[in-house]
Amino acid sequence: MATSTAHYAEAAAVEAARGRGEPDWLINARAEAARAFAATSMPAPSLRPWKYTDVTALDIEAFAPDAAFAPRMTGTAPAGGFAGTLAAGLATHSEVVREYLGAVVQGTEGKFTAANAAQWREGVLVYAPRGKAFDAPVTVHVDGREGAIFPRILIVAEAASEVSIILRTSSTAAALLVAGVIEVVAQADSRVRLLVDTRWGAATQEFTTLRAKIGRGADVQVGTIALGGLIVKHTVEALMEGEGSTSRIRGVAVGDKEQHFDFVTLQELIGPKSTSEVEIKTALAGASRSIYYGLTRVETTALGASANQENRNLLLSPRAKADADPVLEILTNEVIRCGHGATVGPLDKDALFYLQSRGLDMRQSLTLLVTGFFQSVLSGLDAPGLVEELETALREKLATAELT
Amino acid sequence: MTQPILEVRDLKVSITEKPDIQIVKGIDLTIRPGEIHALMGPNGSGKSTLASTIAGSPTYKVDSGSILFRGEDVTAATADARARMGIFLSFQYPTPIPGVTMVNLMRESLKARRGAEVPAREFLAELRATLAKLKMSEDMARRYVNDGFSGGEKKRAEILQMGLLKPDLAILDETDSGLDVDALRTVSEGVNALRTSDMGVLIITHYERILNYIEPDFVHILVGGRIVTSGGFDLAKRVEHEGYDPILKELGIASAETPVAEGAAR
Question: Is B172 an interface residue toward A (CB < 8 Å)?
C-alpha cells in the first residue's frame, strides 16, 4: 500500500487526473498545484491571519485523501445553467469551467489551497447564465468520513442572474482533514446567496477559503453557521471590484469543549460606491475559543464606499476565550462610512436575573439570551426553514454546553 | 386566619460583592391574601434591595433572617424557583433583551410557571385577553423585550407579564417612577384590573401618588434599612403633605437623609 505522502506527489496527482479523463489544461493545473504544495511550507503564526491557529505541527500528508469522497447535490438549474459536479460540468460547460476554475483562488497561493487544487475530486459547479434565476436553492451535502477531503465549489453567476446555494457539511467521529476552496464569480447585477451550515464531527479539522469577485451592482451574501468540528477556519473574502457592488458576510459559531473557530474576513473595496458588511458572533462554552481577524481595505478607487465589520463574542464559561482583531486600511478620504467594533464578555448579569425572575432556570435563561444575541445574524439569512432548524440545533447544543 | 402569602422575619441583607455593606437591617413584614402593602421611604433606605431580595436577586446576600412564601422557607431558593412558585417582581429598571421577543419570553415564562407546555392557541388567547384588560396593542408583544421601549412602555410590559403569569405575590418596584400622570393612571388601572382577591401586593414607592390609584391597606415607612413606622393609607397622605422629616422627628429619628449609597439600592 502506498504511503499517504505519495498521494500528494506531483506524479500521483497527475496520474489520478489522467485516470479521471481530465483535459490537459486541468492536468497541468494539477501538476502546478502539486509542485506548489511541495514547495510551500505551512503558514506560520507570524502571519496575522494565522496568529492564533498554529498549524505548523499539522502534517497534511499524514491524512490520506478519501478516494471515494463525492458531494451530493439537489437542485435544478434554469435552462442553459448547470448544477452538478465539476467533473460533469467539464463535459457540458467546459468553457465556463476553464475560464473561471482557479481564477478566483489560485492553486499556488498557499499550502491548503494548493492541496485542494491538486487533490479535489468531483467538485461542484453551479452556473447561472445571463439573466436567469434558479427557482430554489441548490443544496450541496459534503459528508466526510476519514482521511482528507478537498471540497471544491465553483459558483458562476453571469450578469443579472440569481442563485442561492446551501452547503451542509458533516462527518463521522473519525479524524478528518478538510481543505476546501469555494470560488464565486458574481458578474454585473447578479445576486448570489451562500449559506454554509458546518456540523462536522468532533475530530474534524477544516481549513476553507471562500473568495468572491463581485462585479458592478452585484450583491453577494455569505452566511456561515458553525456548530461542529474540532478546528474550523473559514477565510471569507469579498473583492468588491465593480461600482455599487455589495457584500454581506455573516457568521455564527457556538463552541464547546475544545472547539476552535477561526474566522478571517477580507473586505476589499475597489469599485466606487461599493458597500460591505461583516457581522460575526460567537458564544463559547467549555474551553472553546474563537478567533476573528478581519481586514477592511478601501482602495483609492473606492470613492463613496462604505464598510463595517463587527465581531461580538459571548463567553459562557470561565475557560472559554476569544480574540478579536479587526483592522481598517483606508486609502481614500472619500468614504461614506467605515467602521468596526469588537467585544468579548460574559452574559449580561442583569438580563440573566430578569429572565430568571420570570421563572426560567439558568440554562433556559442562557439559551434564550444566546439565541437572542444571534438573532441579528440569523434573521438576515435568506433560508427560513433552515434557520429554524439551525436554531433548534443551536438550542440543543446549548442545553448540554459546559458552563464551568 | 388564612396563611400569609409572604412573611419576612428579621431580615438582614448586604451586597454580595461588598458583604460589609448591610442595607436591610432587620425587617419584619407579613402580607396576607388580598392585602396591598406600600413600602415608602426616602432614597437609599433599602426599599429596592428588599424587593430584589424577596425575588431572589444574586446581587444581594441574606445575612440573617428568613423569607417565607406561603409558609415555605424560600430564603435560599433561586430566583427562578421563586418565580415559578408565584413571586413576581416588576422591575424598577426592566432590562432590554435584544433579539428576544416579548411573545417568546412570555410563552417560555408561562410554561415555566405552569410546569407544562402551553399550547400555542391557548397561549395566544390568554395573551390577547390580558392585552385587552390592559388596553394594550399586540404590537408590544412582537417587539424585543424592553428594547427601545419608553419608560411607560417598559412598566406596562412588566404589568402585562404579571397579568399573564398570575402571581400570588406581586412586588411593584417603583412602578410609578418615570411615568407621567396618564401613564401612571394606565399602569395603575392595569394593576387593579389584574388583581385578584388571593393576590398579595407589595408596592415600593418613593412618592405616594401611585397610592391614589392603588389604595394600600398598610403603609410602612422604611428608613436606614428598618421599618420605622407602619399605618394605614393616612400615613401615606401624611408623607405627601409633610414629607418624611416630621414623622421621623416624632419617632426620635434625626433625619430621613441617612441613606446608603444610592447605587446600592438598585
Answer: no
